[in-house]
Amino acid sequence: MNRVDKDLYPFFIVLFLTVVALVIFWPILDMVVLGASLAVVLLPLHHRLLRYTRPAISSAIITGSLFILLTGAVYISVMILKANGGLTNQIFATIGSWLDNPATHPGAFGVTISKDTLSLWLAKGNALFVNYWTTLANNLLLIVFKGLVFFISFFLLLLKGTAIRDRIYRHLPQPVRNYWDQLAPVTVDTLYVIYIVQFAIAALTFFIAIPVFYLLGYENILFYSFLAALCEAVPILGSSVAFIIVGAYALALGDLRGVLIMVILGYVVVSALPEIYVRPVLVGRRVKIHPVIMFVGLIGGILTMGLAGFVLGPLIIVLLMRSYRIWTDDRKGVLGTPEQVSARETGL
What we know:
By secondary structure, this protein is mainly alpha-helical. 85% of the residues lie in helices and 0% in strands.
């Protein structure tokens, strides 16, 4: 036992230094985390391509395809926002005029949210959906740098991920290897489900939002539905942002019926229900974790770790729960059945 404990000392030191490095370099390591998690999901595709080509070429093909896919998605989104620029300008201008009017400002109805807070939210909305070119230009260097970190991490982990994993595994103490062997499959399953469910819910949001905006009675139904799906596809936003914007627009127009539709059908049914029920159930069912626990992991991860939290939050929860189960199963194997433990305690 003493030999095993001594073998664990270097492992815990390396683990501690790794955690310290993650904390210090987190502003850029979130892209490394996203790149690594996506590389794990796409490793099976990489292994299939290895039957026909070299590892470097396979990694380059997958990385290039991912770059084209993401660039195309961003380009299409920007073009759709540009084509509907007049509408988005009208929405935010109407909301701004409504907030500036003392007679219609929420404070006149006893709402305690300060005007500065509401103005800040409105400015953030303008930066994302109206003045997006200015926002992109002002953050261009940061966006390019983080993009490079993401794609380089993704490429290298596709190319060298298996070798790095095997090298680390060879130097792990045997007790840690036992946990690794049991946690590795559930890690892959969790990451796979997180990404699949994320895009599935974004697509689902587009289609179920169409009848909601049809009932709203405004034009540009498909654009509003696209806006909800776009916000849902970005984990740190969520489709609720779109429904809050359109709901505020309806309120600024004095359309109380539209506000109720946005709150009840939009926010509760289309936005909240998939996040509270559908996503946790789909992810939790695959990894056998209760949906409520998965919901806490997802929301807690996003709130504390930002974009990378939508991956790390559920993953950490799953690994903690599975580690606890492995530990309790090991303890049962050591101690025996409850009847045996009771017999030893009573001296029988």
